[in-house]
């Protein structure tokens, strides 16, 4: 990575790592047509530049007993810094929440949660989400099937 710009080799490295973050440096180097040392140096440079922000295991929600995904849109009562801050911090503490986004438009937040069926969802709503500060309205949708899941997109 030179001058903060990604070249084709950097992009190829990122694509391979996005598919398999545990790939060995030797295999990665082979896949991107580099020798091991230059490949390792490029990965380190991408990490230091913050392009690679970390590595994580992708967990199977079915195997964990939380097979159902619910997308929840939330509108808050007020739109001030205090309520956004309090709601965001409280939301981040809920283990069922997989992702949460502050939005523009009709709803303030989009939240992706993992639950066990309608009973698990009701429990999440009553015991957790609806106890968070400042909620005025919510709308929920159960996901039937995941058609595509990417954790990163390489330009």
Write up this protein:
It is a single chain. The protein is α+β, with helices and mostly antiparallel strands. It has 2 domains: 41 residues, Arc Repressor Mutant, subunit A; 75 residues, Lrp/AsnC effector binding domain/regulation of amino acid metabolism (RAM) domain (Alpha-Beta Plaits, 2-Layer Sandwich), CATH 3.30.70. 35% of the residues lie in helices and 19% in strands. It is built from 5 helices and 4 strands. Strands 2-3-1-4 form a 4-stranded antiparallel β-sheet. A hairpin with a 6-residue loop joins strand 2 and strand 3. Helix 2 packs across helix 3. The protein is elongated and about 55 Å long. The two termini are 14 Å apart.
**What is the CATH H-level superfamily of the largest domain?**
Lrp/AsnC effector binding domain/regulation of amino acid metabolism (RAM) domain
What is the end-to-end distance?
A: 14 Å
Helix content: 25-40%
CATH topology term of the largest domain: Alpha-Beta Plaits
What percentage of the residues does DSSP assign to strands (E)?
A: 15-25%
Order of helices and strands: HHHEHEEHE
Number of helices: 5
Total domains: 2
| Total number of strands | 4
Assign the CATH architecture of the largest domain.
2-Layer Sandwich
Q: Would you identify the regions where 5 or more consecutive residues have pLDDT less than 50?
A: none
Largest sheet: 4 strands, antiparallel
Shape: elongated
Structural class: alpha+beta
Strand order across the largest sheet: 2-3-1-4
Descriptive tags:
155 residues, single chain, 2 domains, 35% helix, Arc Repressor Mutant, subunit A
């Amino acid at each position: 990575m030179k001058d903060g710009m990604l070249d084709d080799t950097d992009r190829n490295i990122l694509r391979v790592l996005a598919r398999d973050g545990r790939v060995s440096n030797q295999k990665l180097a082979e896949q991107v047509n580099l020798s091991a040392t230059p490949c390792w140096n490029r990965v380190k440079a991408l990490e230091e530049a913050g392009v690679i922000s970390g590595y994580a295991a992708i967990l199977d929600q079915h195997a964990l007993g939380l097979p159902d995904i619910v997308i929840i849109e939330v509108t808050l009562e007020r739109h001030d810094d205090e309520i956004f801050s309090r709601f965001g911090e409280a939301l981040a503490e809920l283990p069922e929440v997989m992702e949460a986004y502050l939005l523009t438009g009709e709803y303030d937040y989009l939240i992706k949660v993992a639950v066990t069926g309608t009973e698990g969802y009701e429990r999440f709503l009553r015991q957790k989400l609806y106890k968070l500060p400042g909620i005025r309205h919510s709308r929920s949708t159960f996901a039937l099937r995941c058609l595509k899941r990417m954790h990163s997109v390489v330009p």
